[in-house]
């Protein structure tokens, strides 16, 4: 692991998932001394909830800019569902296992892109550009975490 950060917004405000995820990703990249162009793929929270997914896509655009539509994004909840607090670690292991075998795991059952989520969603196992990835997680209360992980490719 090279960088990890969390962001929690005040509980008395309406949760701003986009802001929480943007701040967590920026802090994790800063902590890892990396720039967005050094990230090989993003392991998204990918809840399959339109409101949360749109906020996540917007946050990725906030941080990655014009790279947001090119960096591969996978959402591994499509394999096993939402394991609540354990999901982030399970998804990190999923990306690490894929990298060890030489691919970025796909997002299962992803068929039609949503115009509000302009991301490069991985549909088939994809050869990684490098072994560095960012894992993003968020709760509906506006608590977000981002972890930058160096795997083996």
Short recap of the structure:
The protein has 153 residues and is of the alpha/beta class. The protein has 4 helices and 6 strands; from the N terminus they run E-H-E-H-E-H-H-E-E-E.
Structural class: alpha/beta
Mean pLDDT across all amino acids: 88
Strand order of the largest sheet: 1-6-5-2-3-4
The radius of gyration over CA amounts to 14 Å
Major beta-sheet overview:
6 strands, mixed
Helical stretch count? 4
Number of strands: 6
Q: What is the terminal-to-terminal distance?
A: 15 Å
State the shape.
globular
Estimate the strand proportion.
Answer: 15-25%
Low-confidence stretches: none
How are helices and strands ordered from N to C? Answer: EHEHEHHEEE
How helix-rich are the residues, as a percent range?
A: 25-40%
Descriptive notes:
The protein has 153 residues and is α/β, with parallel strands linked by helices. 33% of the residues lie in helices and 19% in strands. It has helices at residues 17-32, 50-64, 77-80, 87-101; strands spanning 3-8, 41-43, 72-74, 120-121, 132-138, 143-150. The chain has a six-stranded mixed β-sheet with strand order 1-6-5-2-3-4, sandwiched between helices. β5 (132-138) and β6 (143-150) form a beta hairpin. α1 (17-32) packs parallel to α2 (50-64). The model has no long low-confidence stretch (mean pLDDT 88).
């Amino acid at each position: 692991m090279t960088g990890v950060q969390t962001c929690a917004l005040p509980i008395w405000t309406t949760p701003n998932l986009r802001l929480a995820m943007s701040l967590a990703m920026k802090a994790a990249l800063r902590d890892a001394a990396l720039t967005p162009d050094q990230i090989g793929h993003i392991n998204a929270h990918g809840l399959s909830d339109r409101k949360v997914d749109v906020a996540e896509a917007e946050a990725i655009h906030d941080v990655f800019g014009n790279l947001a539509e090119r960096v591969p994004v996978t959402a591994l909840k499509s394999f096993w569902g939402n394991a609540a607090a354990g999901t982030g670690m399970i998804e990190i292991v999923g990306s690490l296992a894929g990298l060890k075998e030489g691919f970025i795991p796909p997002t299962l059952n992803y068929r039609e892109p949503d115009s509000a989520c302009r991301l490069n969603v991985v549909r088939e196992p994809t050869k990684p550009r490098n072994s560095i990835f960012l894992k993003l997680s968020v709760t509906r209360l506006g608590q977000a975490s981002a972890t930058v992980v160096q795997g083996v490719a």
